[in-house]
Predict the structure.
Amino acid sequence: MVRSTLLKLSENKKFARWVTSNQTTRKMSHRFVAGEALEEAIAAARVCNDRGMSVSLDYLGENVATAADAQRARDAYLEVFDRIAAEKLDANVSCKLTQLGLDMSAEFCEGQLLSIVERAASYGNFLRADMEGSLYTARTIDVVKRVRSQSPAIGTVIQAYLYRSEKDIQDLLSIGCRIRLVKGAYKEPQQIAFPRKKDVDANYVKLMQLLLPSGIYHALATHDPNMIDATTRFAAERGISKDKFEFQMLYGIRTDLQSRLVREGYRVRVYIPFGQDWFPYFMRRLAERPANLIFFAQNLLRRG
Ligand SMILES: Cc1cc2nc3c(=O)[nH]c(=O)nc-3n(C[C@H](O)[C@H](O)[C@H](O)COP(=O)(O)OP(=O)(O)OC[C@H]3O[C@@H](n4cnc5c(N)ncnc54)[C@H](O)[C@@H]3O)c2cc1C
């Protein structure tokens, strides 16, 4: 109920304007967002690198309204790859295809994405296309496959809550595509997605067991200790060494677990979002954990 309301609110433009223009909520967004400027993301990336973790930088934005906005986002990503190289960071990039104009046309989005992936490839780097709501699943996979056939420096994300995901994984594995496995962050109807957490978790473990033996370098993105234990156990049983996959977690979430995994010799990548368009991302993080909402409300009352 709380999750549904927050996810619905994440699409409300009026509420977004209020939250993003309010000084208190802007400060509170720093709990999950490195900052509004690239410099702040780079500083956060350096801290993670110094702690033995790699990062993925996400210039926040989604569902842009005009081609000019989509082109500005493309230019921002080109700059991000240039800066990663200049700063010698252990970092790659994550981005949402609706930020690159997927709502306008798949062809337009594909052209934009290809130019960014070619820049990534010129540095020996990599871009991950995030997975958005189910309206975009098939289109995201199609665009990624088309771009990948021209430049392989791209992978994508599969959500364990969708019934279709096993088939999508088999499809993507057949072309050697790198996959980030997540549980899924959007509100989806039960006709297409497991409604119960325990079924999502069971599917996550099942899909992880498909990914790890594939010989392709995949990412297990979760803060759930049960998913992490299932992964480390399975890898040990199958003799899959720790450098053959990575764990990924979000900036500001379970930093204790991030450090523990590094100490145990696992690869960890922290997803670092930055930019002015942080509202929908922030709301999805609140929706994932009701305790975050309490923390948020207490801060608002205290400062108000
Ligand atoms: C690197 C990364 C990239 C992602 N990319 C995508 C994507 O492209 N598409 C997509 O749909 N989803 C994406 N997600 C989000 C994902 O789908 C889940 O919504 C999110 O990771 C929460 O699920 P969980 O696996 O951590 O398990 P949960 O069962 O939700 O949480 C397990 C535990 O983790 C901690 N936790 C989880 N979320 C939070 C939070 N917001 N605040 C504080 N603690 C928390 C809590 O301790 C919780 O008990 C991504 C997640 C990560 C880590």
In short: The chain has 13 helices and eight strands.
